[in-house]
Design brief:
The structure holds two protein chains of two kinds. By secondary structure, chain A is α+β, with helices and mostly antiparallel strands. Chain A is built from 20 helices and 21 strands. In chain A, the strands form four sheets. A six-stranded antiparallel sheet of chain A has the order 3-2-1-6-5-4. Chain A is rod-shaped. Helix content of chain B is 41%, strand content 21%. Chain B is α/β, with parallel strands linked by helices. Chain B is globular. Classes of the chains: A alpha+beta, B alpha/beta.
């Protein structure tokens, strides 16, 4: 909530009052209207507290929101209006304000025991705030407001304090003026009566003594009226003294301060004594002196608004002040009553707002999106430079503020956007992706977004419509989808098993070869401890897990148990991806393993056979040839020429011995051969 | 100094045959036969007079011809060794060629001509 708006409203009401040309009801109507706007309340009233003869208080409403929304509320409103808008029932929330003379806040009136319920036709009440208006500790009035969306609180009451004070002072001031007028009228009547009586005195001397008595009574009456006038002036002075806004009176001739109020002392920092020794030039920067002198010299209207001036506080701080003046006679001098409202914060806020608006405009124009602000008829209120240039470039058209946006769009797209706009008017943001054919047989992809634009009271102001060229992204997505299709086809047709896991080991993807080889589909594997299924042996499972979580770049073989109830030989490799997912690549190596085993067995067999051949060669070289060589050597020594040679018998004996040895060796060799043949046949 | 040749062979018949042939072609040379290579090695180590030649069989129990050669090489003598074996296995001849001390490889039965050629070679 903006304190400046509150003070401006108070200022306006005070100015109107000070001008002397006001209608009390209109003044309070304006105050109530301002109060409802400031507090975002739905309805309310401002009233004064009056007392019946038995000193029982009741509420007489000065101003009341016209709540004639339907027939029932209209009836209720009219019935109260007829009764002079007086409310005597104090068993209500506002009655509680009157009886306790305290602020009443109720953010759930239906549940509130202080509430006496609502009369038929009374509009629904979701929240209520009642503020007592007290003058010199006596309850003189009451403000009641209802249905602020976010409810009421103590902070709001504090914020409204200057407002409450103003209402109180106005009630008093209006009462005082009314009393003054009544007293004046009475005075006038009595003077006329006196003149009439004096005339009667001339013709009725005999009634002199009686008339003297009447005259005495009349004088006593006049004295009483003067007292009333003095009292009224006091009340008027109270309005000056305790106004929440600075007010002062200065001598138009000398520019000397003649009187200042409390708010002036508080705001400017000088004491009243200091003020009364100063002129209005002393509270301005020196360079502004001529300007103010000229302003006064040109002659002032009785009531005028003198624009924004710079004032200097005692602490040298310079403030911007909005000044309203009123020519008056003060103690016989021509003077000016001034009401000064410090608008420095307001000006600062306005400057910031202008700067902020400039920044927003720069941001708005520099966006890479086409941005439009549309009214409820889909006409352009604002458009950014990107959109103006884009539409010119693509369609060779100039966008004009006030144009209907749908005039720039045709065919199916127009219907689509129109539907989005209508949905947006119902409060729903909409987003569409549309294709726009442009010259050169090209298609542009655009993403349109409509967002309802609401004011601070959540009422729809229009539509924020943005268009983003997403052609490049779309083309990229199409390319990616093509690549994905190729990759999927590639994966499914790869003669190896491929599966992808997340960091928890959950399956994300598997190809067709995986399903064909291991029997499990992706759906069957999700949420299942597949390692336990593939590797029922805990040690094998642990080994597989360690391999999966390692950074190994090698292939590793595992015997994997399939859904078909068989073990197959598999070989696996892991690829760790940067996003903590990993890809497992595996192949069924059962056939290769079988072939390798056969080759290994054949190699072993050949090695055994080679060994046997070596042994056989040794036997033939050493064991077989030794007796044979001996036989040959002995034969060469045998003396065939002389059979009776003494060595011949010995040679013969050794020949027999060697022949027997040869026979024995051949027999052993035969046995060895038969044994090998038997073994080979069985292997 | 007595000239002598050492025969190392576990087969007494072969020793007999070789003794007879060498006695005929070189009666001045004494022949000392050993059926166990270890005994021959000890004899060579302790002998003051080295043999002219050693005829060595390969396939013998306890210490075969190859094991004998490994130990014999450590003695650093100039005595030549001739292999006399019944083996016609190529592995044995290839292995024999790797020992510099072996000057020849004779296949049993050794003929008179073979012995004459060997003895001539060492200029006896």
């Amino acid at each position: 909530m903006d304190i400046t708006n509150l003070l401006v409203a108070i200022n306006q009401v005070q100015q109107t009052f000070l001008s002397g040309e006001y209608d009390a009801e209109a003044l309070f109507n304006h105050l109530l209207e301002t109060l409802l706007t400031l507090t975002e309340s739905e309805y309310g009233f401002i009233g004064r507290i009056l007392y019946r003869e038995e000193n029982t208080p009741y509420l007489k409403v000065i101003t009341l929101t016209n709540i004639a929304w339907n027939e029932e509320t209209h009836k209720l409103y009219e019935s109260h209006k007829e009764s002079g808008l007086e409310f005597h029932n104090l068993q209500t929330l506002f009655g509680k304000v009157i009886t306790t003379q305290e602020v009443v806040i109720s953010n759930a009136p239906l549940m509130d025991i202080r509430s006496g319920g609502l009369p038929e036709g009374h509009p629904a009440m979701h929240a209520f705030l009642g503020i007592p208006l007290k003058f010199k500790n006596q309850l003189t009035g009451l403000i009641g407001i209802a249905n602020r969306p976010q409810g009421y609180d103590k902070d709001l009451v504090d914020f409204l304090n200057p407002f409450s004070t103003t209402c109180t002072l106005l009630i008093q001031a209006i009462d005082a003026q009314t009393a003054q007028k009544e007293a004046f009228d009475k005075n006038k009547l009595f003077l006329e009566n006196t003149i009439a009586m004096n005339q009667k005195l001339a013709v009725r001397e005999e009634a002199l003594s009686a008339s003297e008595e009447e005259l005495r009574q009349t004088n006593a009456h006049l004295l009483q009226i003067n007292q009333q006038l003095e009292e009224s002036e006091n009340k008027y002075r109270y309005l000056f003294e305790y106004s929440p806004l600075p007010m002062w009176v200065y001598d138009l001739e000398t520019l000397q301060f003649l009187d200042v109020n409390h708010a002036t002392l508080e705001n400017y920092g000088y004491t009243k004594k200091e003020f009364l020794e100063m002129t209005i030039l002393d509270i301005r920067p020196q360079e502004d002196s001529e300007k103010i002198k000229n302003f006064i010299a040109q002659g002032l209207d009785k009531y005028n608004y003198s624009n924004i001036w710079r004032h200097t506080k005692k602490n040298s701080e310079i403030i911007d002040v909005e000044v309203v003046g009123h020519l008056i006679e003060y103690n016989g001098k021509e003077a000016r009553l001034v009401l000064a409202n410090n608008v420095s914060e307001k000006i600062k806020a306005e400057t910031q707002l202008r700067r902020s608006e400039a920044n927003l405009k720069a941001l708005f124009d520099s966006s890479n999106q086409f941005l439009f602000l549309l009214n409820k008829d889909f006409r352009i209120l604002q458009v950014n430079q990107t959109a103006i240039k884009g539409v010119k470039r693509i369609f060779d058209k100039d966008i004009c503020i006030g144009d209907a946006i749908l005039d720039y769009i045709f065919g199916d797209i127009q219907a689509k956007i129109r539907t989005s706009f209508h949905a947006c008017l119902q409060g729903n943001a909409q987003s569409e992706e549309i294709q726009i054919p442009v010259p050169n047989n090209k298609i542009l992809w655009m993403k349109t977004t409509c967002i309802p634009v609401l004011d601070s009271r959540n009422e729809l102001l229009g539509i924020s419509f943005s268009i983003l060229d997403i052609t490049e992204q779309k083309n990229a997505i199409v390319e990616i989808e093509k690549i994905n299709e190729i990759l999927q086809s590639l994966f499914d047709n790869l003669p190896v098993m491929v599966a992808m896991f997340d960091e928890k080991g959950e399956f994300i993807f598997c190809n067709q070869t995986w399903v064909d080889t291991l029997g499990y589909t992706l759906d069957e594997m999700k949420g299942t401890d597949m390692l336990a299924k593939f590797y029922p042996n805990p040690l094998e499972k642990q080994s597989a897990y360690e391999f999966m979580t390692s950074d190994s770049k090698e292939w590793k073989d595992f015997k994997t148990y399939t859904k078909f109830g068989t073990y197959i030989d598999t070989s696996w490799a892991n690829v760790q991806l940067s996003n903590h997912t990993s890809i497992g690549i595996g192949q069924d190596i059962s056939q290769r393993k079988n072939a390798e085993e056969k080759i290994y067995l054949r190699e072993v067999q050949l090695a055994i056979q080679n060994q046997q051949l070596r042994e056989y060669a040794f036997i033939t070289s050493h064991e077989l040839r030794r007796p044979l060589a001996n036989i040959l050597g002995l034969i060469s020594l045998f003396n065939f020429d002389n059979l009776a040679d003494e060595f011949n018998p010995m040679i013969m004996q050794n020949l027999i011995k060697s022949s027997q040895e040869l026979d024995s060796v051949i027999y052993q060799m035969n046995q060895v051969l038969e044994e090998k043949q038997y073994n080979n046949a069985h292997e | 100094m007595n000239k002598y040749i050492i025969l190392i062979d576990d087969d007494p018949i072969n020793n007999l045959i070789n003794h007879k042939i060498i006695s005929k072609i070189a009666p001045e040379i004494k022949l000392t036969a050993f059926e166990f290579a270890k005994e021959a090695l000890e004899s060579i180590k302790t002998a003051t007079n080295p043999p002219l030649l050693i005829f060595l069989d390969i396939n013998m129990p306890v210490m075969n011809g190859w094991e004998f050669l490994d130990e014999f090489n450590k003695l650093n003598t100039n005595v030549a060794v001739v292999i006399v074996s019944s083996s016609i296995n190529r592995e044995d001849t290839v292995k024999a060629s790797q020992y510099p001390v072996i000057t020849d490889y004779l296949v049993k039965p050794v003929t008179k001509e073979s012995f004459e050629r060997i003895l001539k070679k060492i200029s006896l």
